[in-house]
Design a protein that fits this description.
With 276 residues, this protein is of the alpha+beta class. It is built from 11 helices and 9 strands. It has a 9-stranded mixed β-sheet, sandwiched between helices. Bound molecules: 1,3-dihydroxyacetonephosphate and zinc ion.
Length: 276
Amino acid sequence: MNNILETSCLTGFIRMCHDGWLQGWHERNGGNLTYRMTSEDVAACRPFFDETPREWVKMGVQADNLAGEYFITTGSGKFFRNVELDPAANIGIVEINEAGDGWRIVWGLENGAKPTSEFPSHFMNHSVRKAATQGANRVIYHCHATNLIALTYVLPLTDRDFSRALWQSATECPVVFPEGVGVCPWMVPGGADIAMATSEKMKTYQAAVWAQHGLFASGPDFDITFGLAHTIEKAAEIYVKVLSTGQGRIRQTITDDALRAIAHDFGVTINEEFLD
Ligand code: 13P
Ligand code: ZN
């Protein structure tokens, strides 16, 4: 291999950034993506790492189970639409220290760029999802999904209300996220507080809604994670259209027993707490 950009981890990462851009979820520098590399990924990329890594930076959050890991991350203030054009300027690879509370850049993020301002949230979500999935989860994705954000102005900000509205808006939803989705109230982005609130939700859910802001989605690979965000946003779009065309009146929807029947036939365990 002659070029780090030929590694499967970087081609997959860059493709997902472009897919998100095409969906319209990444205005300006909106949204961010991180991927926890496998040891094979690190071995394939290591020959291209900088000769001298940059200085360690503390994150304000800590996780023992991510000490020594490597992540690909989008840069703070960088635009998803530019990632494919110039990866080394817009994304990078960071190494986590042995204390699990700091990072240093080992590749990319050229010209003084830094990892996403949401790195603390991504990091804590990675920690929680890695533990919850016995190491399977590797991707955390934050996007400004338009219709989902719109719903945070009109639906009560509860896990139950959002899970039910989304499940009822597309028959596949209870199969894709049978545990439902978590909802965080509006909070200042980019710090330890929103990181802790989101990671608390991610103990139970694969995805969390940030009121008046966007979505956090997790998964084992780029396809599954992007597919989860896409499914949630598509359902939100349908629900917005239902509320608009019906002027708030819903004539019929998927019943709770129908949701149970879908879960039964597809072999998933639906979160009964959200069913009547
Ligand atoms: P960054 O440019 O730092 O990734 O921030 C974008 C964003 O969506 C913040 O929530
Ligand atoms: Zn954001």
